[in-house]
Design goal:
By secondary structure, the protein is of the alpha+beta class. The protein has 9 helices and 20 strands. The longest helix is centred in the N-terminal third of the chain and has 25 residues.
């Protein structure tokens, strides 16, 4: 029988796969437990837009985590194809952030001003259709203004998650199917992970089970208020040349992907664990997309997807060790920022599982910020 793993990782989405990849790279014995398949939920169906979190009003830990993750995305884009043969389709792609209502102009303008002071790249403020047309002539004349910035990138989330998992296996990790249904402790320290009727002895567990992480709260006697945030995306065959920028407005987006399709989304639905695509979401997304990019009225719908992103009650990730339960690390709850933050969350989770100082300061993101269950 193989020796007990140093670390068990629960969940093979982008966070769990990244954690396993970095853990195995440090020489740890790692077993990943996935109840379905690698990247079979939110990590496999997300858009994959990587816009750094730069808003100074956001949590400092979020900004720091985002900065680390952008660096890691660039490193992984070079390393993973060589290690696994999987191209993750990482590419730099500017963003065009639209103000479609007067009330939005000031907020987007403040981001522009901040970038002008802090970013050395191509940042422009565009007003009126003539200026907007210089970047994307198909934008609706109803758009008031826009921020153009070369700060963003895109990746194909499923391929990235799969490459991380396969990279972890190449480095010595084991990825296996199973459903974790409990944890065992001895003197306040993790002793084993329960997988069905099996008990797997382990030194540390990383819980990165997406919206299902909430089930773990009862095993630990803590509060982990994570719920599914359903998001739907349309994949469209559109006329004309591809969009040269990612286009963002009012929480929605459209972008041309390497598959030749325009991906447009999204929704934010709190409907439990129902991941069925709906006609209502299709119509909502199309109406929104056509309002800013009228040419999409001629697009053909090729595919509609839906996934369940894990969102914490306060809207920021849960990342850190569990106080009073040695050997347990929680890494989840990034919501719509899951692909952006996934590599850094996995890196930090790996650091904590190995007893190392985290690669970036995540104070304020720890699970202990929520009131414990009685």
């Amino acid at each position: 029988m193989n020796r007990a793993p140093d670390v068990v990782v629960v969940g093979a989405g982008i966070v769990g796969s990244a954690a396993a990849y970095y853990l195995a790279g440090e020489g740890a014995s790692v077993t990943v437990i996935e109840k379905d398949a690698v990247g079979s939920h939110a990590s496999g169906f997300a858009y994959g837009g990587l816009i750094p979190i730069i808003n100074p009003a956001r949590s400092g830990a979020m900004v720091t985590l985002s900065g680390l993750s952008v660096e890691l995305h660039r490193e992984l884009a070079k390393a993973l194809p060589d290690e696994t043969g999987i191209e993750t389709e990482f590419r730099s792609k500017p963003s065009l952030m639209l103000a479609t209502r007067l009330g939005e102009v000031a907020g987007i303008r403040s981001t522009y001003e901040w970038l002008r002071e802090n970013h050395r790249g191509d940042v422009r403020w565009l007003e009126g259709h003539s200026e907007l047309s210089s970047v994307e002539p198909r934008v609706s004349e109803s758009v008031i203004a826009a921020l153009y910035a070369d700060i963003s990138s895109e990746v194909e989330p499923y391929k990235l998650t799969l490459a991380l998992a396969q990279g972890a296996e190449i480095r010595g990790a084991t990825v296996r199917h199973g459903s974790v249904n409990g944890l065992e402790f001895q003197n306040g320290r993790l002793h084993a992970v329960k997988i069905g009727q099996e008990t797997l002895v382990a030194g540390t567990v990383v819980i990165s089970a997406g919206p299902w992480t909430r089930d773990v709260a009862g095993w630990l006697g803590i509060s982990l208020p994570v719920e599914p945030l359903k998001g739907q995306i349309l994949r469209l065959r559109a006329p004309g040349p591809p969009l040269e920028t990612g286009v963002w407005w009012d929480g929605d987006y459209a972008t041309s992907k390497p598959d030749g399709l325009v991906w447009a989304g999204t929704t934010e639905e709190r409907v439990g664990f129902d991941d069925t695509p709906t006609v209502q979401a299709r119509d909502k997304i199309m109406e929104s997309a056509v309002s800013v990019l009228p040419y999409l009225s001629e697009a053909q719908l090729i595919r509609q997807t839906a996934c369940l992103r894990p969102i914490a009650a306060d809207g920021i990730p849960i990342l850190g060790a569990v106080s009073g339960k040695q050997g347990v690390v929680i890494a989840t709850g990034a919501g719509r920022n899951g692909i952006l933050l996934g590599p850094a969350m996995g890196r930090v989770a790996a650091d904590l599982a190995l007893g190392k100082r985290p690669s970036c300061d995540v104070r304020g993101l720890e699970p202990g910020r929520f009131k414990s269950e009685k």
